[in-house]
Each structure stands twice: as structure tokens, then as C-alpha cells.
Amino acid sequence: MTKILMMLLCALSLFAEDFISEFEYGQMLYRDPRGVSCVSCHGETGEGKDIASYRNSKGEKVTISGSDIRFVTLEQISKSIKEGQGIMPRYFLTNKEIRTIYAYLKKVNNDDNNGSQDDK
Fold this sequence. Notes:
Elements: H1 2-15, H2 22-31, H3 39-42, E1 49-55, E2 61-66, H4 74-83, H5 95-118
């Protein structure tokens, strides 16, 4: 009985990687990697988003925005995530997680672009 259970667990572990798709994993990471959401600053598809605004000492309105990351390279995203850049904090994601987020953004934006072209 124990041997059968062990064989069953081994067989199930072979299929565990397919529990969620790479797209779903990328979406999950983009929405909440380690408790901080990329969506909060970069928007649903990476288009960039206003984070906060205030008036400076001269009374001028200043807006802090997350950058548009839809068309940046994997190397640029990786560097920003690992080192931080401007107002972007540094995150501790693995190379695989970063590639997965990048693939998710590319897929979402390809689908959006294709959809908008079909509607014309």
C-alpha cells in the first residue's frame, strides 16, 4: 500500500508544474509579486499609471507616474526589478519570475493590439 501511494505521489508531482499556465503565473506575479503589485504603478497592461500628485512650493502640480513598460526589453525590465530605478524600488524576483512577467506583458499587449485591429 505504501509503495502504491509513493508511486501515485511521484506520478502526480510530474504533472504539478502544469497546474497553472505560464500566462496565469505571469499574471499572478504581475498583480502581486511578493506583496507589492506591478499593476499599482504600471497599470493593467503595463501602460503606466499616475501614482500620486501634489503641489510643490511654487503651487505647481507635480504628478508621479509609473512608466510605460509595454515596449521595453527583457533586459531593461530585469535591470529595473533587480536594481530599482528612479522611484521604482528593488524587488527580489528570480530570473524565471522576471521572464514570466515579461512573457505575460507581451502576451497581454499582443492580444490587446490584435483585438483593437480586428475591431477596425
